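Summary for the funding panel

The consortium committed to producing paired sequence-structure records for every protein in the target list. Below we show the first two records in order, beginning with the earlier of the two.
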Amino acid sequence: MKSEVSKVNNCLVANFFKLHGKKSAMIHGDIPQKQRDYTMEQFKEGGTGIMVSTDVCARGIDLPDLDLVIQCDPPRDVDSYVHRSGRTARNGREGSCVTFYNQSNSHILRKIEQVTKTHFEE
């Protein structure tokens, strides 16, 4: 997962910033804690508009203005999905969650839809 975080962040650095003028940053377990703390401060202060993170590093992050979560893989259980996607749309705000999946893990999304009584757009 750490390599995927790096790939996504590198793509954003190369492309998204040119289009939208927003910087991206990443945090994962191979990045020293001091650098992760600095990255989080930059994000909270608005110096970084996009955060790319592994699930483990994203736990416990409280960002009230988060409006998009992208999951590179669906979580294995419903509660984790609700927790991750619920990081958006707090305090009456709207938010979105994008989840990448493939044929071998599509059953997980169907289970999440069934349990949460929602329907995902594909």
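The next record, for a separate protein in the list, is shown here:
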Amino acid sequence: MDNENIKILRNKISVPLSKALKLLQKNNGDVELSEQDFHSGNITEISEKAECDYATAKRNYEICNYDITKAIEKINQIQVIITTGKVIDSKIGFILWPENAEGKFYKTVKRNDAFIPAKDFDIILNVFDSVFPLNDLQGNFEQVGFDITGHNFFDHKTCRQIIEKINRIESNDESVKSFLVKVINWLNDKLTYADYIVVYGNL
């Protein structure tokens, strides 16, 4: 193996000698291809660990100056957006997040909250409204109906009822079906540990 190529590659990317040799052997001594191969492998690793698509992994890898750990952390903090795909760049809608019995956020590796645009939330608004009246998180007052401009607190049992009702929504629209599945999956995931789900409307 050409020692000069090894030196050039190691100047371009910070890798041990053994890794540089493997990359060059795999790519027939081509430094440029070896560098691309190295970055491609890192992007794939990020994509798998952060459970995102390749393009998202690549973009954040580059933003984080080719640091795998920082890229994964950055991706994990991206707010989950649940939508039918029919609403473009809407910031008006509902934010959902899990809380414990003391009304505190959960500290997890991945960001817990999700955002649903108002027009998409309309598909399931009646379901959430149907479980009222409810007591608030501390039981201090009764929530009469769903507040589209404030906080709504749903205990674990009520959330299970909501999931059952969402499951019964029928639609011939594939984008709506996909949206409903995403909502159910998000709720089910959070209810494996959450005592409450909070839904906040920013209308």
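Regarding this second record: The two ends are 64 Å apart (CA to CA). The helical segments are 3-12, 17-26, 31-50, 54-63, 68-76, 118-129, 156-167, 174-190.
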